[in-house]
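Entry 14. Ran structure prediction on the chain below.
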Amino acid sequence: MTKLVILSPVEHQRFDSPPKFNTDDRALYFSLNNDELKIVEGLRTTTNKVGFILQLGYFKANGKFFATEQFRRADIDYAATLLGVLPINVGLSSYQKKIPLDHRKRILALQGWKPFDITQQRKVTDHIE
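Output, structure tokens:
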């Protein structure tokens, strides 16, 4: 069976990568409302705070999460500056495994999203039928 190709390789790469923000985009997507700010303030480390802000901003823009290795340097620097810290003090190598997963759950709840589970699958199936 022939594999259906919907996206070109360049489009596929763009789809699987965090958005490329300009200055205005960063100000928009990395801005924090009161609830988001309370969560960030409650996080223990600067790295966790920056990681949360980046995941939240990328999710607001694309409705997707990305691996830490994909975070863009300019965005890391912006988030660090937003927090009033030097970007050199952000070590995303320690932002791994359980912490980002916990943050993703909080972001989904903040944004009013529900994980795609059997309940959501039934809703989609019912809608299609």
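The chain has seven helices and no strands. Will compare against last week's run tomorrow.
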